[in-house]
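Homework help board

Subject: predicted structure for assignment chain

Our instructor gave us this sequence and asked us to write out the predicted structure in token form, then describe one feature. I got the tokens but I'm not sure how to describe them. Can anyone check?
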Amino acid sequence: MSSRIAAVDNYLTTRPGVTGYVMRDRVTGGIYRNANADTSFWTASTIKLAIAEDLLNRARVGAIQLGPDDRALMESMLATSNDNAADILWNKFAGFDRMSFNNAFRANGMTGLVPFPPTTSLEQVKMFPDWGFQQCAPADLDRLMDNVLTRMHPDDRAYLLDRMRHVDTNQHWGVWGAGAAMNPGLKNGWSDEQGGWVVNSVGFAGPGERYTLAIMTEQGDQGGYADGAETTTHVAQLLFQGR
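My token output:
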């Protein structure tokens, strides 16, 4: 693995923007991270994985009820990264103080997650906190993914992993670069922010979900969506293909 990590780090020196990543080997316990693993980036839609985990956890203990419409929204939010579905679920289940999700996110490993208020006139119609205006580090997404794999009820975990393995083609990049033989699953996020594009991916690959990868990029004025998608995909290829 050390040669693969070195290849990733060398590759990232050639890529636009800033990239942070954390890769975890759940068999050996090894955790590999670069210098930007604790750097904060906009989460974009990677936070939808955290939303889905929390909804399933709450439903499991009877704190909420997820009806067929709610589950259809959750599947759309995961499969195609449907923002409207995420909005509906957030507003329905965020609680009277709108902190139910954020409190759970911290408990589920995202201890560095910070919600921000909407920043433009169009977005002011949204209340604080909102899923679309939050920042975290790759290390937070790494802990989230590990939490999904180690602490969820087995039935809920199996459902969520299956959904992550069957995302729409608009998310066939990032951790998807591990290749079909590694049976990857993921939740990606991409957004054109005021500081430029952020393009992120979090997921798993390998037998028994042996490996997890959280990778976040901020392109700034150096690149765009395609550059970020290429970076995240090639990192997964370097780490996992041919294993």
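Reply (TA_rk): Your tokens look well-formed. For the description, you could write something like this. The chain has eight helices and eight strands. That's the kind of observation they're looking for.
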